[in-house]
Each structure stands twice: as C-alpha cells, then as structure tokens.
C-alpha cells in the first residue's frame, strides 16, 4: 500500500506496477487476520464484536482482486473512482477494511488495558495481571460458587457481592454474617486469629472493586470510542496529494464494521451482554488473543 500511495502521488507508474503482487499478498494477509480475530470474538460470544466482524467479512467477500490492474492506467483508475457509491475500487475497499480492523483491535486492546489496570489497582490478592493477561487466583476461584463468574458481578454493595459469589443469602443477622465470614475465611483470616479488622480489610477490598467498576466501565468505553489506527498504519497514509483526502475520509467514516462502545460494553458494568459480563474464562481468552495480535 505504501508503494501504491507513493507512486500515485509521484506519478510513478513503474512504482505502482511493482506493488501489484505485494498488494495482493497483503490482501491475503489481511483476510487471514480478520478471519482469525472473527474466530476469537465468536468464541468470546460478545455480540458487540461479532456483528462488526460479520460486516467486515462481508466486505472482504465483496472485494474482486481481478479488478486490480497488473499494469497501471490513470484512465482506468479514474473510471474506477467514478463508480457509483457502494461500488468502490478494490484498493479503496481493502484500505477501508484494513483501517477498521486495525482500529477495532487497538480499541479492544485499550479497553482491556483499562480493565486490567482496575484489577491491578483494586483486586490485589484476587487477580493477577501480566504477560499472560488477566487471571483469577486459584484461592479466590475455589471460593466463588456462582456459575460463569464475570467481572460485572463485582458491582454493588460489598456484602451483596460476597453473598452472591458464595451463593449464600445476604446476612440478616449475626448467624448469617458468621456464615458469610466463614465461607471467605481462607482469604481474610490467613493468620487464623479471626480478627474482625482482617475481615473488614477484606470487605474493603471488595468494596474498592465495586466502587470503581463503573469508572472502569466508562473509561473502557471511552477507549473504544477513541480507538485509532496503529502508528505504522498512520505512517503509510499520505499527508498531501490526491489520496490524502480519500484516506482522511476513511478515518472519519462510520459503518457497521466499526465497533460501537455501547454494543461492546453493554448498558452498564453489570450488563451480562457487555465486555465485563463475559464469563471470566472467555474474557481471559480474549485478552490473551489481543496480546498476541
């Protein structure tokens, strides 16, 4: 693509012809990348990511590489650019697909970074954040009795959170509180002294997660909204010349293949259909896949 843009702005037809095979190989690489990520989002089961990638796949299927000339003709290129709306040249279509895919992946990465920072800051001792993504500590996991634990379940009053995760009725009296404290005892009473101060520290830890999840939700949504192409991609976009305006339009365009923050994040942090509502195992797999891209 860089060679094509350079050739068009410089009027160098030989440079454009030399890029023809590179262009087609690049398309195959893009197609593979989109399909790989489509499988990742399908496995995660998040509708807000599945639908945009179905749209991207549809756009890819519509690209006809036979229309990419082996030799360059200004007359042919002008005719292609004058085609009716919705029947764009393959060069333009592929550039738009590549741009949106790059933005989508970067936006998702930025969103999970926000979530990872929230866990790192407020979930110490319960979660780990590192090169392997986000993981739940075994000692916490074995006490979580709810099916398909999701981070969105950490929203609300700390005792409600702990009761729900333990699948115990919210304590209404001292006996109920004793049951709740006993369930979580391995995490708060590590010295086996049963001190109330240690229990309160544990409640405060859960409270910190609950009080800050809404902020993490909002910031993750903003990260998706403000998603931008990678630096390498931006460097390939011409700053001047006839095609600069074309690519400037691609940056600002809106279509169904771009991910929508609300569709990805859900209506709030506890929405089971949002990113924080994904079963933790699926969210963790999604994070690992994003780290590898």
Task: Describe this structure as you would to a colleague.
- This protein has helices at residues 2-10, 13-18, 20-44, 47-62, 74-81, 90-122, 138-141, 158-166, 174-183, 185-188, 196-225, 231-236, 242-252, 261-265, 280-291, and strands at 127-130, 133-136.
- It is an all-alpha fold.
- The longest helix has 33 residues, at 90-122.
- The two termini are 20 Å apart.
- Strands 1-2 form a two-stranded antiparallel ribbon.
- Helices cover 64% and strands 3% of the residues.
- Residues 3-18, 77-86 and 238-252 have low confidence and may be disordered.
- It has 15 helices and 2 strands.
- Helix 3 (20-44) runs antiparallel to helix 4 (47-62), helix 3 (20-44) packs antiparallel against helix 15 and helix 6 (90-122) crosses helix 13 (242-252).
């Amino acid at each position: 693509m860089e060679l094509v843009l350079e050739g068009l702005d410089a009027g160098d037809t030989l440079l454009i012809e030399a890029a023809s095979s590179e262009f087609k190989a690049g398309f195959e690489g893009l197609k593979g990348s989109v399909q790989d990520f489509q499988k990742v989002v399908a496995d995660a089961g998040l509708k807000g990511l599945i639908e945009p990638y179905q749209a991207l796949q549809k756009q890819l299927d519509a690209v006809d590489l036979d229309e990419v000339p082996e030799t360059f003709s200004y007359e042919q290129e002008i005719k292609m650019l004058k085609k009716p709306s919705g029947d764009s040249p393959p060069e333009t279509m592929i550039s738009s697909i590549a741009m949106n895919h790059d933005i989508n992946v970067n936006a998702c990465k930025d969103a999970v970074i926000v979530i990872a920072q929230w866990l790192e800051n407020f979930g110490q001792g319960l979660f780990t954040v590192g090169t392997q993504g986000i993981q739940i500590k075994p000692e916490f996991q074995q006490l979580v009795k709810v099916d398909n634990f999701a981070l969105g379940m950490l929203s609300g009053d700390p005792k409600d959170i702990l009761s729900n995760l333990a699948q115990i009725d919210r304590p209404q009296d001292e006996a109920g509180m004793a049951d709740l404290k006993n369930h979580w005892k391995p995490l708060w009473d590590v010295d086996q002294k049963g001190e109330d101060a240690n229990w309160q520290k544990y409640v405060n830890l859960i409270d910190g997660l609950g009080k800050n999840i809404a902020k993490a939700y909002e910031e993750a949504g903003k990260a998706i909204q403000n998603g931008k192409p990678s630096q390498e991609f931006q460097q390939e976009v011409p700053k001047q010349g006839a095609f600069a305006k074309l690519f400037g339009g691609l940056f600002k365009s809106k279509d169904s293949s771009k991910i929508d923050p609300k569709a990805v994040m859900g209506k709030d942090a506890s929405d089971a259909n949002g990113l924080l509502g994904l079963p933790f195992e699926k969210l963790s797999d999604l994070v690992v896949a994003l780290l590898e891209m």
